[in-house]
Design goal:
It is built from 15 helices and twelve strands. It is an alpha/beta fold. Helix 4 (about 140-150) packs parallel to helix 5 (about 165-175), helix 9 packs across helix 11 (about 315-320) and helix 12 (about 330-345) crosses helix 14 (about 385-395). The protein is globular. Belongs to the threonine synthase family.
Length: about 425
C-alpha cells in the first residue's frame, strides 16, 4: 500500500520544484511559500472513498493525502475525527435548516492547531529535525509544545505578549522553552522569521512558513464531506489569523472535486475581528494582497488578532475569491453573543471560534447565506482557554439556599413555575 501520494514542493512565486526529503521552509531561490503537490491522477485510479470507512476516525485516516512517507514516524494523540454537530439552537434562531458545527474544541490540546502540528512534527521527525521554532498567541504554541515533547524534539515558542496567562502556562506545562515576544505589528514578526530562515537555517513551524502544517487542515474537507454523504457544504466559515485552516480546507475540497468524490465546492468565508481585519479590508477593496490593518489589542478574539498576514495573505484571499466566498468582520459584542448561542448548542468556544457564528448571523441578515444552504462553522478552540470571556458572557447565578428539603422545594417551585 502506498502511504503517501505526495510528490514534491512547488514555490507559489517562481514555480521551482524541490524534493520532499529536503527540510525546507520557504523557497531557497525567491523566498516564496512552498506548496506540497500530489499525484492526483494516480490517486484517482487507486483510491476510493469506501477505502477509508473502516479506518480509525482520526485525521490520519487520510494519510495518503499528506506528505509523510512512512507511518512509523507518525506522532499522534488522536487528533481529528471531531464531530460534525447539527445545530439545535442557532439554526432555529437564524432560520437555517442545515447548520453544522465542526467542533475542534475537542482536540487533544483544545484547539484545531493539533491537526497541523501532528503532521508538521511527524514530517520533521521523518526528515531528522531535532529542534524547531514557532511563534504563537497561545493555541499554536501549546500544540507545538505537546507534539514536540512526544516526538523528542526541542521546541522553542515565542509567545506574543498579548497571550493570556492560561495559554502561556499550558505551553510551559508541555515543556517548551518560551520567551515573551514584543512587537508593533505582525509584519515585524514575519520579517524576523523569514530572515531567520535565510541566515540561521533554523527549521520553523510557523503557519505557511512551514509547508506541512496547513496540509493537515485538508482533513476538514475529507471529514466534513464524508459525514455529509460525500457532499461538500454550500458554505464553510472559518476564523482567520494566518489562515492555514481555511487555505488547507479549500485545498482539500479541491482535491476531492478533482478526484470526483464530491460534485461541488463550498463558498469559503474568512472571519476576522472588526478591530483588526486585513483580509476583510483587502476583500472589500477587491484586492488579492492584504496590507497591515487595525489594532490587535482591541479584540477579545486573541487567536485571530493578526493585523498583517504572511506574504500578503494571498493564499487566504485566493481561497475566498476562487470559491465565490466572502470575508466578514465581527465586533467584540457580536462575538460574546455568539459565545452565548454556542453555549445553547452544548459547545464551549473561545472568542475566535465563536467569530464564525457571529459572521454567519451577519451573512444571514445580509442575504449572502440562504435558509436552505448547508453551512459548516468551524469551532477552532475551547472556551476553557479564555475563561474570563466565558465569565463575561454568562452572569453568575445569585440564587442561594441552605441545604434542607424545604428550601430545595421552595427554590424548585420558584424556578419551575
Amino acid at each position: 500500500m502506498t502511504w503517501s501520494y505526495a510528490t514534491h514542493y512547488s514555490c507559489d512565486n517562481c514555480m521551482e520544484h524541490y524534493e520532499l526529503i529536503q527540510p525546507l521552509n520557504t523557497c531557497p531561490i525567491c523566498g516564496g511559500l512552498l506548496e506540497i503537490q500530489y499525484d492526483l491522477d494516480r490517486m484517482k485510479l487507486e483510491l476510493h472513498p469506501k477505502l477509508f470507512d473502516s479506518r480509525e476516525p482520526s485525521m490520519w485516516r487520510w494519510h495518503e493525502f499528506y506528505p509523510l512517507q512512512n507511518g512509523t514516524n507518525m506522532v499522534s494523540m488522536g487528533e481529528g475525527g471531531t464531530p460534525l454537530l447539527p445545530s439545535v439552537y442557532a439554526g432555529r434562531m437564524l432560520g437555517l435548516s442545515n447548520l453544522y458545527f465542526k467542533n475542534d474544541a475537542m482536540m487533544p490540546t483544545g484547539s484545531f492547531k493539533d491537526r497541523g502540528f501532528s503532521l508538521a512534527v511527524s514530517f520533521a521527525k521523518e526528515m531528522g529535525i531535532t529542534r524547531g521554532l514557532t511563534y504563537s498567541s497561545g493555541n499554536a504554541g501549546a500544540s507545538f509544545a505537546a507534539y514536540a515533547r512526544r516526538a523528542g524534539l526541542d521546541a522553542t515558542v515565542l509567545v506574543e505578549y498579548l497571550a493570556n496567562p492560561i495559554k502561556k502556562g499550558i505551553i510551559g506545562l508541555y515543556g517548551a522553552r518560551t520567551a515573551t515576544l514584543h512587537f508593533e505589528s505582525m509584519t515585524d514578526i514575519t520579517a524576523m522569521l523569514e530572515q531567520a530562515v535565510k541566515e540561521l537555517g533554523l527549521y520553523q513551524f510557523v503557519n505557511f512558513i512551514n509547508p506541512a502544517r496547513h496540509e493537515a487542515m485538508k482533513s476538514y474537507a475529507y471529514e466534513i464531506s464524508q459525514a455529509l454523504g460525500w457532499k461538500a457544504p454550500d458554505v464553510m466559515i472559518h476564523p482567520v489569523g494566518t489562515g492555514g485552516g481555511i487555505w488547507g480546507a479549500w485545498k482539500g475540497f479541491c482535491e476531492l472535486n478533482q478526484l470526483g468524490w464530491i460534485e461541488s465546492l463550498p463558498r469559503m468565508v474568512a472571519v476576522q475581528p472588526k478591530a483588526t481585519g486585513p483580509i476583510v479590508q483587502a476583500f472589500n477593496q477587491g484586492a488579492r494582497h492584504a496590507e497591515k490593518h487595525g489594532d490587535s489589542t482591541q479584540t477579545i478574539a486573541q487567536s485571530i488578532a493578526a493585523d498583517a498576514p504572511i506574504q500578503g495573505g494571498r493564499r487566504v484571499l485566493n481561497a475566498v475569491y476562487d470559491s465565490g466566498g466572502f470575508a466578514e468582520a465581527v465586533t467584540n459584542e457580536e462575538i460574546i453573543e455568539a459565545v452565548q448561542w454556542l453555549g445553547n448548542e452544548g459547545i464551549c468556544a473561545e472568542p475566535a471560534s465563536a467569530a464564525s457564528l457571529a459572521a454567519l448571523k451577519r451573512a444571514v441578515s445580509a442575504g449572502t447565506v440562504q435558509p436552505d444552504d448547508c453551512v459548516v462553522c468551524v469551532i477552532t478552540g475551547s472556551g476553557l482557554k479564555q475563561p474570563s470571556i466565558i465569565q463575561q458572557a454568562v452572569a453568575e447565578s445569585q440564587l442561594e439556599l441552605t441545604a434542607s428539603f424545604d428550601n430545595l422545594n421552595k427554590l424548585l417551585t420558584a424556578l419551575w413555575k
